[in-house]
Amino acid sequence: MAPSRHFLMCRPEYFAVEYAINPWMDPQAGADAATAVRQWEGLRAAYEELGHRVSLIDPIDGLPDMVFAANGALVVGGRVYGARFANVERAAEGPAYLSWFTGNGYEPALAATHTNEGEGDFLTLDEVILAGTGFRTSVAAHQEAQEFLGRPVVTLRLVDPCYYHLDTALFPIDGRNVAYFPEAFSPGSQEVLRRMFPDAVLASAQDAAVLGLNAVSDGENVVINQEAADLALELKRRGLNVIPVDLSELRKAGGGPKCCTLEIRS
Ligand code: ARG
């Protein structure tokens, strides 16, 4: 069995699509909190069946995107780099997540000076942290995180508004390799990814469009949106155990399994 992970999640009791801060969101389309909760419970159960530990932060009425816990912070080596949201609609989530961490004894916990959306744009590998910019997280935050965490941070530029967070276009398969959708990145960043990960899994536009890259892998098991068929096949071919989940309701806000999951790395 893969070593147990510790995840922070937020039940989507107040989930809704009330504003549009990414191209997936259509406030007219209608999103249902009860359906979102049911699907989210499936994700949580999948983690617990894999032996991972799930902690919960209380949802806050009026913060419909708070279910997307990945955005709340970046935690590496027990150090908590707090989020500072790009959009005013989500601004209150930053302090809410930070106070969960301080309230639960995590330190040091830093309230960031620079705009960053936590693990939405920071993905941690064994030797480096990959960091997205272009839509939400600033390059200054990449530097701030590097200084605070003492890990090398590699900036990657996102160019497609549908893939506004790094975790919508790339996921670590394990500590050394990734899967990604090349077209979501600038030409220079595509070249960086090719050099760093010659053996990466490259995803198709179809798999990216169902947020198939918003997956969570523990190195053996990959929890992934059920619609990402070709990507699932390729992961299986590489010996990974694929666990499909249905998060279609949360996709209406532009989120998938990874968005709902903040990893607490001790
Ligand atoms: N509606 C949310 C936003 O636009 C979705 C966040 C998804 N989270 C993620 N880690 N990609 O901010």
From TrEMBL:
Top-level taxon of the source organism: Bacteria
GO molecular function: hydrolase activity
Keyword terms: Hydrolase
Protein name per Swiss-Prot or TrEMBL: N-dimethylarginine dimethylaminohydrolase
Native source species: Sphaerisporangium rubeum
Species classification: Bacteria, Bacillati, Actinomycetota, Actinomycetes, Streptosporangiales
